[in-house]
Amino acid sequence: MSTDNERTPRGTVRTITDLARIAGVSPGTVSRALAGKSLVNTKTREKIEAIAREHGFRPNQMASGLRRQKTGVIGVVIPLGHDTRQQISDSFFMTLLGYLADELTREGYDLMLRRVVPETDADWLDRFIGSGMIDGVIVIGQSDQFDRIEDVADGYLPMVVWGNHTEGQRHCVVGTDNRLGGRLAAERLIAAGASRLAFLGDTKPMEFAARYAGAQDIAARMGVPIVALPTHLSPDHAGEEIARHLGDHAGNIDGIFAATDTLAALCLTALRERGIAVPDDMRLVGFDDLPIARQTVPPLTTVRQDIAAGARGLVDLLLRRLAGESTESLVLPPNLVIRQSA
């Protein structure tokens, strides 16, 4: 039986992905092996180098630039494993991307943006890193890809992730203390008179799970019931889901903690359509403090995460990691912003 090497004619290996397929490893492993990274074990590195020599493979100029950190491009990738219908036109993404673009431009870098759906591209992070087109990568959101990000972090230093920090994790994160933010939201709802709470959002993504857990902490302490109302972030579906939740739970809740300001704004619309007054009949708290929070009717009480400071932190830590430093994560404090919805 012939092997992959025997079936592949000399000269057809043109990219790191081609070489990875023959070697039976990820493109990221090939990239690190050819760069002489010690985190690739000796046997695997020697195998990859031998296949490269056999096929006359030479990393292209851009890939060589990657090892010299000379492409002048930072990759920004948004993995949507938990909600494939979510759009990067979401207000949170656009706000963070705007601040990131400003910070990277100030540091002399261009930004390359990718939206990926991991269920159709399981090797999404290794391929991006091994593409030869970027010096480092910022991942926006852990989604359901925590283990994949952890694996890559073991052998790739210039990567920083916007997300939730968990004790003992190996990848470097910048993000808000989401659990504390959830506590602040629940405390405000109860202080405003709510006695039956609901969390509006998907509890599977790490950041949202932490926000819900924080709200549960306060609800348990105060003896107040709280229920999760799973809701997608895609505006095409979220409005319908929120309206259904309000119908199913009519009279059973009087305080809602929305996982994002976008969901909170959609919830305000649904409440208005049902003739439910905010905050008299329903108290509502969001999360993010996006510009929309000041523009809703009534203006939205929300938990503020400092997105501008987060963008500065992401870029600062990434530049330090590009210089070879192994950095700690940065956890930002949330702040309650009281307006008129609760």
Briefly, what is this?
It contains 13 helices and twelve strands.
Your description of this structure?
The protein is of the alpha/beta class and 342 residues long. It folds into three domains: 56 residues, 434 Repressor (Amino-terminal Domain) (Orthogonal Bundle); 135 residues, Rossmann fold (3-Layer(aba) Sandwich); 127 residues, Rossmann fold. The chain contains 13 helices and twelve strands. The strands form two sheets. A six-stranded parallel β-sheet has the order 2-1-3-4-5-11. Strand 3, helix 8 and strand 4 form a beta-alpha-beta unit. Helix 2 crosses helix 4. The longest helix has 17 residues. 45% of the residues are buried. The N terminus is likely disordered.
How do the strands and helices of this protein lay out in sequence?
Layout (H helix, E strand, L loop, with lengths): L3 H4 L8 H8 L3 H8 L7 H13 L6 H8 L4 E7 L11 H16 L3 E7 L7 H6 L6 E5 L5 H8 L5 E4 L10 E4 L1 H14 L5 E4 L5 H17 L3 E4 L5 H14 L6 E4 L2 H13 L9 E6 L12 E4 L2 H16 L7 E3 L2 E3 L5
Parallel strand pairs: 1-2, 1-3, 3-4, 4-5, 5-11, 6-7, 6-8, 8-9, 9-10
Antiparallel strand pairs: 10-12
Organism: Erythrobacter fulvus
Protein name: LacI family DNA-binding transcriptional regulator
GO molecular function: DNA binding
